[in-house]
Amino acid sequence: MSEAPFHMDKKRGSSMGNAVYRVAIASTDNRYVDQHFGRAESFLIVDVDEDGNYEEIEQRFVIPVCNGGSHDNEKLKKGVEALLDCNFVLAAKIGPGASYELKDHGIASFEMPGEVGDSLYRLDGYIKLLEEMGGVLA
Question: 113: which residues sit within 8 A by CB, 6+ positions away?
Answer without folding.
Answer: 32, 33, 34, 92, 93, 119
